[in-house]
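Provenance

Sequences were taken from public entries as deposited. Structures were produced by running a predictor on each sequence independently, with no templates supplied. The record for Class I SAM-dependent methyltransferase from Actinacidiphila acidipaludis is shown for reference.
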Amino acid sequence: MTRGTTNPNRLRRMDRWIAAAHAAELRRSPDPVAVDLGYGAAPWTAVELLGRLRRVRPDARVVGVEIDPARVAAAQPYARDGLTFVHGGFEVPLPGGHRPLLIRAANVLRQYDESEVHAVWARLRTRLAPGGLLVEGTCDEIGRRHVWVALGPEGPRTVTFATRLGSLERPSDLAERLPKALIHRNVPGEPVHAFLTAFDRAWAAAAPLSALGARQRWIRAVRDLREAGWPVLDGPARWRQGEITLAWDAVAPAAGR
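Predicted structure for Class I SAM-dependent methyltransferase:
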């Protein structure tokens, strides 16, 4: 069971990215079901996820899954058309045997050992519908800093770093929010450490743009990273949101490459 800390709007950065990156699959799916896995002591994140997905797919449905029966009972007053809450864990027990198009697991795996992460990822991926997406990551208490991994049925695809730019001193500040698969790998010799080091250097080089605001400085730093050969997969529209998405292979732990 997670600590359960859940603040409204905590997962807004992740949700907005999901709604943009997974929009095509949401629109064409015959069964647009999403799971908020381990939603915590209050159901705010599931309620918010439904609202954000329905801007893309008006008939999207969300199922909140919690391992603590008391939390499931407490969430029932918030259930409504398109939003239900069930007791369960990594088996993702959806009513009617549905397989979800999306599983979002935020701040769930931080309490597990790194050695357990890939087994959990594999188990959750088997629950996905064709074209489905698993998004697993970590954020701070109010959602200013967030890092998540996106996985398809075949395995990890991308990693996204997202932040409220006004709160950022340097990009490596995001290291404290790396997901469990990466947080112990931020050491010399590991790809994620090399990336954050390069990002800090690009950020420092873009310092003259600070006069135009942190957003312009971030955009320049990300562009410089891409020009230096880092596999940046998104573009300025996402960079302006304080995001950067890379191919997973660029930061995957050295032992697992």
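The chain has a mean pLDDT of 95.
The CA atoms of residues 36 and 240 lie 27 Å apart.
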